[in-house]
Design brief:
Helix content: 25-40%
Number of helices: 13
Strand order of the largest sheet: 7-6-16-17-18-15-19
Structural class: alpha/beta
Length: about 500
């Protein structure tokens, strides 16, 4: 048989089938969590189901948020009338989903000011600064360039060629991660996190610690113990004993070109929810989820009940108390809590062994030394010579007594306790993306590889494709006598 008659036969049969049996009704979807994961799932479901008429269609999407605002771990605080990121704060220039969300929603990108090139760094071991960069208050581009060059030379003199090896290590990881943005025809739908990582060539990075990976890459112990440790303590609140992929992502978050959304990164989640025609239920905490007669039934703490064909968990299950029927099985995992403290006031130079506040670096990072009470202290804004807004990361609550010791003046203090990301260890063990054999999905299973806004979006995109793929397959399976034809048609849809 020639090609043209075969094509005609396929389309004729397709038309007969479509007229003989009604199209399945659009599936309703319930999503628990309104952060970047949940909002991205809603966005990609709408985007993909509407762009391909042969995919399963999506009906109502309902998002449940236990708090009164959307965004999850993307949130802002107001200090002295100014808005600052309190949770997930920075995005990488190669975070292509976040960039597309920003363009789609017409949000404004906020980039570091030009003066950030002279932002001073100090590495504190609890007793003294073991390394400090130069700084300058000059706004002259020439002066800033000179200071930046001087700092590059100073860094090289201390850490040598290991700096380049670290950059190459991060670039190799990023090159593999970029495979997740490939077109559909060259990128499969993944049913497990392990599949996702192995396909991209990233899985091995989750089987060793960052420290082991960097030693294998030829980095010096000095660089690992100092600069790399400072970075992992700031970004993940943990040491270089975290798993290699999470560590590589953390190092990428210390590079150049970083950006955020003017007014708060939470606007990405809010915008995606708005443009995805979602029914949003704020102040609604789900306490039980059951599968009954082909539907998922979700019950809230307020006694309300909701049903849907597809359910998506887009929030970490580790510290939630949702009762599942039938029960689910996921590996036990601890979350790393990060205590974020904002202070409007002035640091005490005596605490750091100085006479003047101006001698204290604008970013104080710390080494993995017992007794160091904080991971970092950074200047967010300078209101005056002795009036600044600071952001402190710590693993424990910063008590009043300690803050009074570190600061000579405190006019305003705000504390936030984030269950921020998993506590990483190698080798990592991953929860399933599909929590049952039906249509219950878990976006945050990918977090054990790395936890960022972008990795949540990458996982959410795969979850959306997985939902549509499995619904399409289930629709075909439910069509009497036509299962084989559906399989063949999906395989050769290019006809």
């Amino acid at each position: 048989m020639t090609k043209k008659p075969l094509i005609a036969l396929v389309f004729t049969l397709l038309l007969l089938l479509s007229s003989a049996s009604p199209s399945p009704l659009p599936a309703s979807v319930c999503i628990i969590g309104s952060g970047i994961g949940g909002s991205s799932v809603a966005h990609f479901l709408r985007h993909y189901s509407n762009s391909n008429p042969y995919d399963a269609q999506i009906g109502q999407i309902r998002i449940f948020e236990r708090h009164g605002v959307v965004g999850g771990r993307m949130a802002t605080v107001s200090v002295a009338g100014e808005t600052f990121e309190a949770g997930a704060s920075i995005l990488h220039p190669k975070n292509y989903h976040a960039l597309e969300f920003t363009r789609l929603l017409n949000l404004t990108v906020r980039k570091p000011s030009t003066s950030m090139s002279c932002f001073s760094l100090g590495i504190w071991d609890g007793h003294k600064f073991i390394f400090k960069t130069f700084t300058s208050d000059s706004e002259s581009v020439i002066v800033q360039s000179f200071v930046s060059l001087a700092n590059s030379i100073k860094m090289f003199l201390r850490y040598g060629r290991s700096l380049f090896r670290m950059t190459n290590f991060v670039e190799r990881m990023l090159g593999k991660f970029l495979k997740y943005y490939k077109p559909f025809d060259s990128r499969p739908v993944f049913e497990s996190v392990e599949e996702m990582l192995k396909w991209a060539g990233l899985y091995d990075l989750t089987t060793q610690t960052l420290e082991e990976e960097l030693v294998d890459a030829g980095l010096s112990p000095l660089l690992i113990q100092e600069l790399v440790t400072v970075i992992t303590r700031i970004n993940y609140g943990q040491s270089v004993r975290i798993s290699g992929l999470a560590g590589a992502v953390s190092l990428a978050g210390s590079g150049g070109g970083l950006w955020s959304i003017e007014g708060g990164n939470w606007q990405m989640a809010a915008g995606l929810i708005n443009q995805s025609h979602v029914v949003l239920d704020p102040h609604t905490e789900i306490e039980s989820l059951s599968y009954v007669s082909g539907l998922y039934e979700l019950n809230s703490t307020e006694g309300e009940s909701y049903t849907c064909e597809v359910a998506v968990i887009a929030t970490p299950l580790d510290e939630l108390n949702i009762h599942f029927t039938p029960g689910i099985s996921i590996p036990e995992r601890q979350l790393q809590h990060t205590f974020t403290t904002f202070v409007r006031g002035c640091l005490n130079p005596k605490y750091f062994g100085f006479d003047m506040v101006s001698d204290i670096p604008e970013l104080v990072g710390t080494t993995e030394t017992p007794g160091v009470p904080f991971s970092s202290i950074s200047v967010l804004n300078k209101h005056g010579e002795k009036d600044m807004t600071y952001k402190i990361f710590s693993r424990q609550l910063m008590p009043e007594e300690l803050l009074n010791h570190i600061f000579s003046v405190r006019n305003e203090t705000i504390r936030i306790n984030w269950a921020a990301y998993p506590h990483y260890h190698a080798p990592e063990v991953f929860a399933p993306l599909i929590l049952d054999s039906k249509n219950l999905y878990y976006v945050n299973a990918f977090e054990n590889a790395a936890s960022t806004m972008e990795t949540s979006a990458v996982s959410a995109e795969n979850i959306a494709r997985l939902i549509l793929s499995r619904l399409s397959s289930q629709n075909c399976s439910g069509t009497s006598g036509l299962k084989n034809f559906c399989s063949e048609y999906q395989m050769h849809s290019d006809l």
